[in-house]
Amino acid sequence: MDNQKRYQAYWKKNVSVIRNLLIVWATVSFGVVICLGDVLSDIRFFGVNLSFWFAHQGAIIVFVLLILYYAWKMDKIDKEYGVEE
Amino acid sequence: MSVEVLTFVLILVTFGIYAYIGWWAKAVDTQSFYVAGHGIPTTANGAAIAADWMSAASFISMAGLISFLGYDGTIYLMGWTGGYVLLTLLLAPYLRKFGRYTVPDFIGDRFYSNKARAVAAIATIFISLTYVAGQMRGVGIVFSRYLQVDVNAGVIIGMAIITFFAVIGGMKGITWTQVVQYIILMIAFLIPAIAISFKLTGIPIPQAALTFSDIATRLGVAQIEMGLGEYIIPFQNISKLNVFMMTLALMVGTAGLPHVITRFYTVKTVRAARWSGVWTLIFISILYTTAPALGAFAKFNLIDTLNQKPIEAVRQIEWVEKWENTGLLSFEDKDGDDNLQFSSSPKTNEVFIDRDIIVLSTPEVANLNPIIIALLSVGGLAAALSTAAGLLLAMSSAVSHDVYYRILKPNATEKERLCVARMMIFVSVIAAGYFGINPPGFVGEVVAFAFGLAAASLFPQIFLGIFDKRNNREGATAGIIVGLVFTLVMITLMKSVPLLGTKSPIISDLFGINAQGVSIIGMILNFGVSYIVSRNTAEPPVEIQEMIENIRIPKEYA
Fold first, then answer.
1. Quick check: B499 pLDDT over 80?
2. Domain check: are B190 and B276 in the same one?
3. Using one digit for the tens of pLDDT, what is the confidence trace for B399-415?
């Protein structure tokens, strides 16, 4: 029973990490690049404009950082809840 | 040495390596054949998935495609990378914990139904077959372009080499071959990109050059002068709604492609599955952040070299003459002023550029050593072969493992199963080769099918299988069928001109959504139908609920 509770707490924690990361994922790709793409193209970003930079470079870099953080964070959470292999 | 001789030597050397790996990795049982004995190291798996993922099309055509779409090219840039976020966060770790061999394995076991298994197997075969037809054609085209052999002969040579490492080596042979192919194709892609970036901006890193130089902005200005539309402003070519839907469809479709998902079964642990996702996206993103830079630079350079220049002076340039001979570049002095003009109107435009030339001509435009040109052709071949091999294994295992062993003959011996697996992959190679030699006239359209069906059928049910404990056999079967049928019908109606031979599309769009984005509606229907049906039927049996608890934690459930 004790194990059961710990596993459920682990799952809840896992789902909340995923949810937060997916909010960032959606905000960058569908928010910044698509929904606000026309508005943000007025803002200068070095040689190009902000939304173009995210469309052709930034979003992909954010995707990499997101799953890098996820893998690192889950390693820690696995240990914290004693569920690592 | 001439480019042709260099290319030939490089192709021979790389093919020797691939064949050797196939022999070295010789599979001895079904576990090593389907999932490489769950023993592939994380980084190697990442490189292999990346090579599998980057097809001949993304190697040769994508930079060109983006240079023509400008901002809206983000559909492919984000669509083909963002799916790995979904895959790594939502599916990969749990499927690894589940620990079987295929996608229909999971659907069939989780929803305790051989009908669901069969539907998933059919979806897998259909998705992989449509996808692989284009790849075999790609192999043939690369051969014919560089070695002056017939396209069909090229397809057959490609079939022979794939047979060697896939039929003998199984997943282990495929994986290690793809690791080598990843290295080759990245070197081949990066060197010309770095060279042209340095030549135009003085910055050797293409990503930094695109960000800090003003080439993209100047390209935009030049395009407006020619009436071609802005480069760095959104929604010039495709509506906002469709950019949204198409991007989402490619992302979800990526996460639902069976040949990609299967790769996460090949690593040792759940943790390794997560880190495989990280490595995969890192390796893929190197190409996907370089491609838009290469596209913008090469297009800027082409316009700069050709626009408003006397046609005779242009023809003096060596690479112009070569590519004009291949038909990928052509000129016509329509207004008779002896100068070339780019224009948005087909009536006055005088320069025709095939988008493939953006990548293919870069080494010559940037004055690189012929060995780079040879490397580019070997890279293109590596890209096509690696993608085809992964697809063939996914397709054949759906028949030999899911249909033959799990449904038709559950008491088959290990030896029989391995023999059927080898036979099926051989049959798949023949089938793919047939489509490579006799390509259906709608190869471009069928790839939309592959992604659309993956998004509308497989992804939602794998996701619900893990995250929605209450979803059951009835819900899953109804959901998959509704999603699959809806998407098939919609794409067929919208693409009726090439598919059914009608004069105009039967319907042009659904609420403004085109064929490549409509699978998102199919996916939503799949989710909705599953929810309603599962909530009104019996909950899954206790042992299935325990299985779900088990796949949700990395260690053995106790």
1. no
2. yes
3. 999 999 999 999 999 89
The tens digit of pLDDT for each residue in B298-335 reads: 989 888 888 888 888 888 888 888 778 777 788 888 88
Show residues of chain A in contact with B243, CB under 8 Å. Answer: 34, 37
Answer yes or no: do B152 and B88 share one domain: yes
Residues B524, B530, B536, B539, Cα dihedral to 10°? -140
Is there a contact between A71 and B276 (Cβ–Cβ < 8 Å)?
Answer: no
**Residue in chain B nearest A59 by alpha carbon:** B78
Is B351 in the same domain as B248? no
Q: Chain B: give the shortest CA distance to residue A81, in Å.
A: 10
Average pLDDT rounded to a whole number, residues B353-364:
81
Backbone angles phi, psi at B248, to 5 degrees: -65, -40
Question: Which residue in chain A has the smallest CA separation from B232?
Answer: A52
Q: How far off is chain A from B521, nearest CA to CA, in Å?
A: 17
Q: Is the pLDDT of residue B441 over 60?
A: no
Distances (CA, A) of B319 to B314, B366, B377, B467: 10, 10, 16, 56
- Domain tally for chain A? 1
For residues B328 and B338, state if they share a domain.
Answer: yes
Q: What is the ipTM of this complex?
A: 0.97
Nearest Cα residue in chain B from A20: B89
Of all residues in chain B, the percent with pLDDT exceeding 90 is 49
Residues B356 and B409 grouped into a single domain: no
User: Do the chains contact at A67 and B240, CB–CB below 8 Å?
Assistant: no
Mean pLDDT, residues B380-398: 87
- Nearest one of B499, B497, B521 to B511, comparing CA atoms: B521
Burial of B202 (0-12, 13-18, 19+ CB in 10 A): exposed
Q: Give, in order, the Cα–Cα distances in Å from B9 to each of B241, B371, B377.
A: 49, 11, 12
Q: Shortest Cα distance from A39 to chain B (angstroms)?
A: 10
Give the distance, in angstroms, between the CA of residue B3 and the centroid of all CA atoms in the same chain.
29
